[in-house]
Amino acid sequence: MNKAAVVALLGVTLIVSGCGSNSSTTNANINGTWSAALSSSSSVNTFAFMTHLTVNADGSLGTTSFNLTLDNSPCTFSSSTESGTLTLTGNFNGQVSGKFHYVVMSTGVEVNTLTLDGTVSGGKITGTWTVTGATANCTGNGTFTMNPVPPV
User: Fold this and answer.
1) CB 105 within 8 Å of CB 84
2) Pairing outcome for strands 96-106 and 112-121
3) What's phi and psi for 16, nearest 5 deg?
4) Element (H, E) at 6
5) Is 32 within 8 Å of 148 (Cβ atoms)?
6) What is the rounded average pLDDT for all residues in the chain?
7) DSSP state, 108?
8) pLDDT over threshold 90, residue 115
9) pLDDT tens digits, one per residue of 29-80
10) What is the rounded CA–CA span in Å between residue 130 and residue 40?
11) Which are the contacts of 37, defined by CB distance < 8 A and separation ≥ 6?
């Protein structure tokens, strides 16, 4: 094979390998700050929170900087612990999907539990939530959407 053919073949290979690599990396990484809006059809026990998620090697979620906002809710979460799991699948273009499970439990005398179950797809997390607890009328359910917060 002559040198010109080898150079041409190498050039075409480099051009073709660049095709399709224009995918967004924002979908590729769950690690980072997320904002969540939780709603219910009854407009009672609605929540919003922001947290920094980290996916550990075993699929468990680590969280820091958790900040919960209660709206029309008798539930109390003066201090809490957060835990969860994330089972991901993905491809080489950085598109991630999978199952999301997240639990926020208040600590103290009256334990209230907020549970989110959903899916990761298209760079966001959507699903359903439930809340139960020791605080009077701290029950409910609805849907949620979590979106990544762009870095500053």
Assistant:
1) no
2) antiparallel
3) -65, -35
4) helix 3-18
5) yes
6) 77
7) S
8) yes
9) 788 999 999 988 776 667 889 999 888 888 888 888 888 887 777 888 878 8
10) 10
11) 48, 144, 145, 146
Q: Which residues contact 116 (CB under 8 A, 6 or more apart)?
A: 36, 38, 84, 100, 101, 102, 103, 127, 128, 129, 144
Q: Phi then psi for 39, rounded to 5 degrees?
A: -135, 160
Q: Tell which residue, 128, 132, 135, has the closest CA to residue 109.
A: 135
Q: Which residue has the tokens 């005398």?
A: 109
pTM for the complete prediction? 0.73
Q: What is the CATH number of domain 29-148?
A: 2.40.128.120
Sheet holding 32-39, edge to edge: 61-71, 46-55, 32-39, 140-148, 124-133, 112-121, 96-106, 80-90
Give the residue from 78, 30, 36 showing the smallest Cα distance to 56.
30
Distance CA 91, CA 87 (A): 14
Report the residue count for the chain. Answer: 152
